[in-house]
Write a structure and sequence with these properties.
single chain, 626 residues, alpha+beta, Arc Repressor Mutant, subunit A, Rossmann fold, five-stranded antiparallel β-sheet, five-stranded parallel β-sheet, 24 helices, 18 strands
Length: 626
């Protein structure tokens, strides 16, 4: 242990002791304190601290001030007369207390406990289908019609991670005994020239599975007799051969219909947004056949992976207009469903306080994101598994909250970050630059602001975003933004805030600061004479750029202008809001300037309070006369 004053830092168990009292710190707060304690007596710069604790991840430098305030509160330290942490304005921090080594208290290895807990959590990942009763019922209804001889084509849609595969697994498990079920998976090509999988790939994979299954002999016989070009090649260990015969799709339809005459046949094709044109034509042919057949095509796809000119869009619209198919769309899970999913994953009925709300807010109802966030909470030790001996009255092991989830800084689980980086990496450097600039604004952003950040023309920026929105799944057009001069600028939005987070972190601090400043300057020019209405936005960009003085100035000017817009309580409250935010930002200024600025803002707040009190006096006199 590292002993300083009456405190001891327990590195092994990642906690702080004050005498016999254990003080639990959030993981990042503990990490900041540990680095300071392990490097006493020397200046640790802001950059060094950020590089050591957030490697390869951009974190705004002002976040360090938040951790220092929290540590001073825990340690009872005074920034003006520090006993532990001394601030060096614009440079860094020095841990000034004497640190001594002390024998640690024997405890189980913490890393082993975390790994054991994570393994326990991952072991509960199988049964995770919740909140899909309506979709399951729809699938069962389609199967009943199939059993009566009605051909079925069902499209299952949902964004990535929404649980399409889990729903297919559940339905196929139900139907396995009463029908022949064969599945094929579309695969996206890796190279730029191979955007979609090879011809008929998912159909051929499903046929190979069918021929190798319980009904394999009957399937092989039907294919050999009616559609020999579709028969899997045994010489290739069950892999299917390429189909190139003229009229082979018609032969395939006939063979499948014959197989379905004896026993219902279900062909499951996953991720057909990656399907080749031939596969889509085969689906179209199977859907348009007029003869009754106990044949179902159940195909899943993600609308977000379909550009505007994708052939599946035209096929889907045509089949729906002709009532040749039906669609089951998976919507995001509601909060009660997220809570049920968490109970299944954690294998306990009572959830840690606030967990379901926190996960719902950040996952936005996406099951894949729910799992990733939960894993992230365990890795960061915001959730810990308490052994049965320490679990309480019932004696059962359970997951418990170690620190408030709100203390966890904005971030993105590594699993999701890597997945999104792969998507972003397929774009051109110019397109990546465009999206990075967009991430400076918000989840939704106007094209004019991105054009300002990059010093480009608005029309060219809109055209580039329109092209991106037709091609990539994580950006879409969301309307228009009207400017003071009557002009309009297209508005766009990221599919999820995690995409914005990944793109924001890809930029260097200097690049971000430069672009934030440009957006703030453009806001000032666009709303010249009306800066009051966008003061908060201008201050946000200046603050993000590290231009504290200008951000404070903008807010103070807006607070001064507020009373002129109406002598009522609302304008006073708005002026007070401007001043209180300016006061928070002023904490980043150098000591001398900070003290003067804070004093001036406090005086302005007192003047507002005095004005409010003065306005109430006449009313009291009138009431007394009455």
């Amino acid at each position: 242990m590292k002993q300083f004053d009456s405190f001891a830092l327990d590195v092994q168990n990642e906690c702080l002791w004050c005498g016999a009292e254990q003080i639990a710190l959030p993981p990042r707060t503990f990490a900041v304190l540990r680095y300071l304690v392990e490097n006493p007596g020397r200046l640790i710069s802001h950059d060094e601290l950020l590089d050591k604790l957030w490697p390869e991840t951009y974190v705004q430098p002002q976040v360090l001030r938040t951790y220092m305030l929290e540590l001073r509160k825990v340690l009872g330290d005074d920034a003006r007369q520090p006993r532990f942490i001394r601030s060096q304005p614009k440079r860094g921090y020095v841990f000034v207390a004497v640190v001594e080594e002390r024998e640690p208290v024997p405890q189980p290895n913490q890393r082993h406990r975390v790994e054991k807990a994570a393994a326990s959590l991952n072991g509960n990942r199988a049964d995770t289908l919740v909140g899909r009763e309506k979709e399951l019922s729809a699938g069962r209804a389609h199967f009943e019609r199939l059993a009566e001889g009605a051909r079925q084509v069902i499209l299952l849609s949902g964004e990535p991670g929404m649980g399409k595969t889990a729903l297919l697994d559940a339905l196929c498990a139900e139907w396995a005994g009463a029908a022949s079920v064969a599945r094929g998976q579309c695969v996206r090509g890796i190279g730029a020239s191979e955007q979609y999988c090879e011809e008929y790939y998912p159909i051929l994979e499903a046929l190979a599975q069918l021929c190798a299954g319980p009904d394999g002999a009957r399937a092989c016989a039907a294919l050999a007799r009616i559609a020999p070009g579709w028969l899997p090649a045994p010489a290739r260990d069950g892999a299917a051969q390429t189909v190139s015969r003229a009229g082979s799709v018609g032969d395939l339809c006939s063979a499948l219909e014959e197989l379905a005459a004896e026993k219902p046949l279900i062909l499951v094709l996953e991720d057909i947004h990656w399907a080749d044109d031939c596969t889509l034509e085969a689906i179209s042919a199977l859907a348009r056949r007029r003869a009754p057949a106990r044949l179902m095509i159940l195909a899943s796809f993600s609308p977000h992976h379909m550009p505007q000119d994708h052939p599946l869009r035209a096929l889907r619209q045509d089949l729906r207009l002709r009532r040749l198919c039906e669609e089951i769309a998976l919507a995001p899970l509601r909060r009660e469903h997220v809570a049920a999913l968490l109970r299944k994953r954690l294998a306990q009925q009572e959830l840690p306080q606030g967990l379901d709300a926190f996960v719902q807010e950040h996952a936005e109802g996406n099951p894949l994101f729910v799992f990733a966030i939960l894993d992230h909470l365990v890795e960061e030790r915001f959730l810990v598994r308490v052994d049965a001996a320490r679990a309480g009255v019932d004696g059962n092991a359970r997951w418990e909250q170690r620190a408030p989830f709100q203390q966890m800084e904005a971030g993105i689980p590594d699993e999701l970050a890597q997945m999104m980086e792969m998507e972003i990496g397929k774009l051109t450097p110019a397109e990546q630059r465009l999206l990075e600039a967009a991430s400076l604004i918000d989840v939704a952003f106007p094209a004019w602001a991105v054009a300002a950040a990059l010093e480009e023309e608005i029309a060219e920026t809109e055209e580039a975003f329109d092209n991106l929105a037709r091609r990539v799944p994580f950006i879409h057009r969301a309307g228009h933004d009207e400017l003071p001069d009557g002009a309009t600028s297209a508005f766009y939005a990221f599919a999820h805030r995690f995409y914005r987070e990944v793109l924001y972190q890809r930029q260097s601090a200097a690049t971000r600061a430069r672009r934030h400043t440009r957006v703030a300057n453009r806001l000032g020019r666009i709303f010249a004479g009306r800066e009051f209405s966008v003061a908060q936005e201008i201050a946000h960009h200046l603050e993000a750029a590290g231009n504290w003085q200008s951000a404070v100035h903008v807010l103070r000017m807006a607070a001064t202008e507020a009373p002129a817009r109406g002598a009522n309580g609302n304008t006073r409250l708005l002026a007070e809001e401007f001043l209180r935010r300016a006061l928070r930002i002023a904490a980043n200024l150098p000591d001398a300037e900070r003290a003067r600025t804070e004093r001036e803002i406090e005086n302005a707040l007192q003047a507002l309070a005095a004005d409010a009190a003065e306005e109430k006096k006449p009313k009291r006199k009138q009431l007394q006369k009455a």
